[in-house]
Amino acid sequence: MGREFTVGIGGAAGDGLDKSGDTLAKSVSRLGLYVYAYNSYQSIIRGGHIWLRVRIGEERVRSHGDHLNLLIALNQDTVERHAREVEPGGAVLYNSDRFTCERSLLREGVVGLPLPVNEIIKPFGRLLPIMQNTVALGALMFLLQLDFDSGVGVLSDTFQHKGQAVIDQNVKILRAGYDYAREHFVPLVKEAWKFSRIRRPFVTGNELYALGGVAAGCKFYSAYPMTPASSILHWMASHGEKCGVVVKQCEDELAVINMAIGAGHAGVRSMCATSGGGFALMTEAIGMAGMLEAPVVVVSVQRGGPSTGIPTKTEQGDLNQVFGASQGDFPRVIIAPTDTADCFATTVEAFNLAEKYQLPVLIISDLLVSEHPETIEPSALRHDVPIERGELVTSWPKDNSPFKRYKNTASGVSPRALPGTEGMEYVAATDEHDEEGILISDVFTSQPVRRKSMERRMKKMDGVLREMKPPALEGPADAPVTLIGWGSTAGVIGEARALLAAEGIRCNQLQIKYLHPFHAREITAILRKSKTLLCVEGNYSGQFARFLRAETGIGVHDKILKYDGEPFEPRIIADEVKRIVAGKPQTLDVTLEEAREMAYHYIRTHLGDAARPMKIEKADGNSHGEPVWLVEIAKRDTGEKSGELSIGVKTGAIYAWQPVGVGA
Amino acid sequence: MATVVELPLETYQGLVEPDWCPGCGDFGVLRALELAAQKLRLPTKNIFVVSGIGCSSNLPGYFHGYGVHSLHGRAVAVASGAKLANHELNVVITGGDGDGYGIGLNHFIHAMRRNLDLTYLVMNNQIYGLTTGQASPTTEKGHKTKSTPRGNVELPINPIALALVSGATYIARGFSGENKHLADLIAGGIAHRGFSLIDIFSPCVTYNKINTYPWFKQRVYKLEDEQGYDATDMQAAFKKAFEWDPKIPLGLFYKGDELTYEDHEPALKNGPLVRHPLKMDKGVFDELVEEFY
């Protein structure tokens, strides 16, 4: 394992954290290091807590990891909530003009590094508060022993559109932060990094759905704004003219999908994207694409459900919906990309499958893979991707019998003619129809025509399945534990396996990308040889485990599930595997850390942020019928105890807020 | 639309005979569409007729051209996508009042705002026919239907006024009992660059016993016959849009001259999208990737 380092940046939304994280990530990636960043943001524009983690490694890092080596705190809240996560040898860098960092919050071997931002930036005159980020970034570059020039390069590119004066000022401030750190702090990274200086793109999955789309010849993109799919629309809108794409923001998701299908039917590669709520509105039309046999690519980016749910948080809870979309049986493909680079490849593949087999291809993504940026290998992105359009008939002799758009064929694929082609006029209908497209739903009902139409359409799925690569087991084939995941959890499960291997538990992994059609035969063969099967997924009920059993008859031994909005971390999975292997029961009790977070929630909603949780102890619940966490709450300004909160360990109930001097 | 010779009317007739009830207004609309296509000398390969669901939405199957018989309420959206993909097609949308003014109203309004070059024929029979006679968005107040046994209490949609405020640039009303007149209105709509609405009284002889052929015949008159009516005057059009009983105007209410959505769309400058090469240029691709470093 190469060296790695994780920086956490916390502050209020609107503090410009995303930009600082971006500058840091791009600076280190230009040096040839790998980066994986994750932003736990909230659905508000200003205020609220933002928590960005940037993990840097000499070798590839596949999740945001379990560690925190340096905390950059832009507000008091961040210090209180995250300082104790910093590991020995690490530090907390904070704006000492605005708040303090108490020693008591830090673990042994962690130092607080005060940054007097006002004093540092004084020579530059009046500046926007956002400039504190650049000072901190400069200091960070010294602490991490990064090459200062790489930061200068990124700032120059970032502010290029604002002119040289802005660039110069930002570089000066960056330099001031760097110099201050050099004079006052010691580097946290003792041994020099090995900079390979291999440039790697730092991208999100959503950017690659868009880029993959235009590389594959997508000419029509429609969308209705919805988190976490909107950044695909933003990329498409800002690059549409350059790439010759019509980008249409529509009145609703019904229009989005129906327009995309109209464009796909007319012969243009078309795509749209949404999240679960929007996808719900699209479902009827997805069946229409199956029936008309119109190619279309739909990206559904999952967020926390049900209903509006947690819009800015991740989940894998829409599998049932995507599977269940639309009435009746119809051919369609469902693919779950397994990492960022795979979003590019999957989109290219989706367009080819959609046109060759004339059906809707549904890409099921999630907030994690769609929105987190990471470095990928440059070779993953190619302009000359394969473009396979399937059977297109472009001319029809006049003396021929009429063109049959829905001709019965052995493969199930009927050669397609695009509207505007001479002599092949036909009407595509959502009603059941015969080979020529004549309806058999009303006057001309026909059982055998219906049967053969259905069989012909569904036959296409055999061809699709043959084109898809069956999944393979990763890790030792004879391992006692097999971890099964689907989609974006590939990396984090892989890292959990490494942790477990180091602790003497050997695991292998089966990661599923192609959900429909499903390689039931191949997967059954693999899983029959496995010993303990554990399904890892980001939802409450184990939707994939249920599907796996339906397709293979194999039930998993246990499930590792997460549905709190935040993505899995390697340690979380590893600990769960250890618990299950040891035969220990699962506990859903509120942990001490969770009790603190719940106390913060109560303070923010009821006490106006003027207080903070201090000591937390478990106690008998007495009348509550369950043990409770007793959380001491103190005034922020004076530190004086203001009351006590009791939180049910089992239920998470907030039982009582007991202000000091009131009641008992 | 460059074919010079006028084609025989059969050219535009589909393989299948309509299964509408005898006397249905939709027969007249189908014939008028055939006449309009003939008049404009449109080659069948360039006509793309999109419908939703309902009696009138069966029309594309009876017409000879390309088309999509789509979902209830979604015809305008499907047509919009197809038009943007290939703006050389003459895209005609056909459907009923429930399809266009009820379940599909949102798309209808937004397509007008965009002034997409589409021609929308709404066969307005003021009732849900295919589902056997429930109230529709244009059913008159007080009208007793299967779903409103005590009489409809909702105000009907006014399609002409709605189109005027929504940005449509060709707004007309026809009557399937006035076939030639309707054919001219449709031809005008197809020839017009921009969104054309032709609201058509197309009586349902089975389920609407109030708004019948005789009912309309007693009331309708043509705007062309009224001296001095100026279809470029939006205020005048508004006035006429609210005329109903005892006199109901037919004809062209309003015609505007605005750029279409297609005119504004930079990606369409080099001809229809459907003819653009799919392969990505390496130089452009490299520039796109460069933004990620």
Please summarize what this structure is:
The complex is a heterodimer of chains A (664) and B (293). With 664 residues, chain A is α/β, with parallel strands linked by helices.
Overall 3D form of chain B? globular
Strand order of the largest sheet of chain B: 2-1-3-4-6-5-8-7
Provide the structure class of chain A: alpha/beta
Largest interface: A-B, 76 and 63 residues
Query: What share of residues are in beta strands of chain B?
Result: 15-25%
Say what oligomer this is.
Answer: heterodimer
Mean pLDDT of chain A: 95
Order of helices and strands of chain B: HEEHEHHEHEHEHEHEHH
Tell me roughly what share of residues is in helical segments of chain A: 25-40%
* Separation, N- and C-terminal Cα atoms of chain B: 49 Å
Enumerate how many helices of chain A there are, as a single number.
Answer: 19
Sketch the major β-sheet of chain B. Answer: 8 strands, mixed
The order of strands across the largest sheet of chain A is 9-8-10-11-13-12-19
Q: How does this model look, in words?
A:
The complex is a heterodimer of chains A (664) and B (293). The longest helix of chain A has 21 residues, at 164-184. With 664 residues, chain A is α/β, with parallel strands linked by helices. Chain A contains 19 helices and 25 strands. A seven-stranded mixed sheet of chain A has the order 9-8-10-11-13-12-19, with helices on both faces. In chain A, helix 4 crosses helix 6 (164-184). Chain B is of the alpha/beta class. Chain B is built from ten helices and eight strands. In chain B, strands 2-1-3-4-6-5-8-7 form an eight-stranded mixed sheet, with helices on both faces. The radius of gyration of chain B is 20 Å and the shape is globular. At the A-B interface, helix 1, helix 7, helix 8, helix 9 and helix 10 of A face strand 1, strand 2, helix 2, helix 4 and helix 10 of B. Strand 15 of chain A pairs parallel with strand 2 of chain B.
